[in-house]
């Protein structure tokens, strides 16, 4: 799970609102653009990074700092964010702004139906706010995003990131994040179940009151078709939530790219069949994707159709733990191949052996979506790096190669701070060496 800011890179030029704006939309970049995640936009660091060939800075906003009370932004926090973004822009960096929706202020958590709830009434220990179904926190977010666009030099930004989870990515909390210690599904607040105070654009449960795994609903047997319809609603609501945030940004006058951070590979097609056949009782959930609502096979085309463009997918799994496992196989299955989009849904192909990046990249390609990426960050921290991920120095060495191999338009390294502090054991020179390696 990531709590430090997340990022993306840049390639190409797109004409937006009558002016030349930087873009990630080049479908066939010769070489990824390189950047860093969570940039401080400090002048000395910017000079070093620009001199080394980096061109992208990811700057993260924080909702709780900008709007600690309902209403207008905190002036000092807004001015500080604008100054930080401007320093990066004036240094020649292309900036992607993390919206900071994953940091809701305490007053938002106190709004009606604000907390995500599972089928047992539990709430997520990570404190996730229901930005998918609940109208009150969604309205607060809409107001925040509108003010955010006004507070920064938005016409100079390359992109703005949106998400639904406490990590700033697409998805619900994990299956074991309830305080009850049970396997959780996260669509059991009143708005999702009854339609009361439901966020605009969403639909209530197609099987109100039904909990996954139950064989009966309203006096009749539940079928696999029912379970598949429920899961399609559950996962599809995430796409609509992202589209709603994008629509607010467009309404506020932001014409640049909307970036969607996408974790993992999502539920695999064979696992989804097992899951719905067992009425979502827990079978087929290989890595928690099912309970998080991550169905990249369906979501990528949904994103392409529903999210007002330009839109860019940011794959946050470049050299994650699945890459470590996949490259240890014989033959290795960690690198992308030209035929992947055509064969990724072939039931005879063992895609469970592929790395997360490889499978997710194939789904984005099938949907025609531009893709950038980033590494998970150091293992053992609340960043996304698992215990069996590569150590950070190895991620710095390997991730740029994966980005180049998979045809990503850009790659940003998590995190900038680690390139400028001795205790991390990695340096800007290490990153540049990996960038230049063929």
From TrEMBL:
Residues 1-25 form the signal peptide. It comes from the Bacteria. Residues 370-385 have a biased composition (Low complexity). Residues 370-396 are annotated as: Disordered. Keywords: Signal. This is Beta-galactosidase-like protein.
């Amino acid at each position: 799970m990531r709590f430090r800011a997340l990022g993306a890179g840049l390639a190409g030029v797109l004409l937006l609102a009558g002016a030349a704006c930087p873009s990630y939309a080049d479908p066939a970049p010769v070489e990824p653009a390189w950047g860093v995640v969570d940039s401080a936009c400090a002048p000395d660091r910017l000079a070093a990074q620009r001199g080394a060939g980096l061109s992208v800075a990811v700057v993260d906003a924080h909702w709780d700092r900008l709007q600690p009370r309902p209403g207008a932004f905190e002036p000092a926090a807004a001015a500080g964010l604008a100054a930080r973004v401007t320093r990066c822009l004036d240094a020649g960096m292309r900036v992607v702004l993390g919206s900071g929706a994953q940091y809701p202020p305490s007053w938002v958590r106190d709004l009606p139906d604000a907390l995500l709830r599972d089928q047992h009434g539990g709430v997520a220990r990570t404190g996730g706010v229901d930005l998918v179904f609940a109208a009150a926190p969604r309205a607060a977010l809409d107001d925040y995003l509108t003010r955010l666009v006004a507070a920064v030099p938005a016409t100079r930004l390359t992109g703005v990131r949106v998400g639904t989870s406490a990590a700033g990515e697409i998805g619900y909390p994990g299956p074991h994040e309830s305080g009850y210690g049970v396997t959780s599904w996260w669509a059991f607040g009143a708005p999702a179940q009854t339609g009361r105070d439901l966020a605009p654009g969403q639909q209530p449960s197609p099987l109100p009151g039904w909990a996954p795994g139950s064989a009966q609903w309203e006096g009749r047997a539940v079928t696999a078709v029912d379970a598949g319809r429920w899961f399609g609603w559950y996962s599809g609501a995430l796409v609509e939530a992202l589209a709603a945030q994008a629509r607010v940004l467009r309404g506020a006058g932001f014409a640049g790219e909307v970036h969607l951070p996408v974790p993992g590979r999502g539920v695999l097609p064979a696992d989804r069949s097992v899951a719905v056949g067992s009425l979502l009782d827990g079978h087929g959930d290989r890595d928690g994707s099912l309970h998080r609502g991550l169905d990249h096979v369906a979501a990528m085309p949904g994103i392409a159709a529903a999210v007002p463009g330009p839109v860019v997918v940011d794959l946050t799994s470049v050299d994650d733990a699945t890459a470590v496992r996949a490259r240890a196989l014989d033959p290795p299955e960690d690198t992308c191949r030209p035929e992947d989009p055509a064969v990724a849904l072939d039931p005879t192909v063992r895609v469970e052996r592929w790395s997360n990046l490889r499978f997710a990249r194939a789904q984005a390609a099938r949907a025609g979506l531009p893709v950038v990426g980033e590494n998970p960050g150091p293992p053992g921290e609340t960043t996304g790096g698992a215990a069996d991920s590569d150590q950070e120095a190895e991620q710095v060495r390997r991730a740029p190669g994966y980005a180049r191999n998979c045809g990503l338009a850009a790659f940003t390294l998590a995190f900038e701070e680690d390139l400028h502090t001795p205790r991390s054991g990695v340096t800007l020179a290490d990153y540049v060496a990996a960038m230049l390696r063929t």
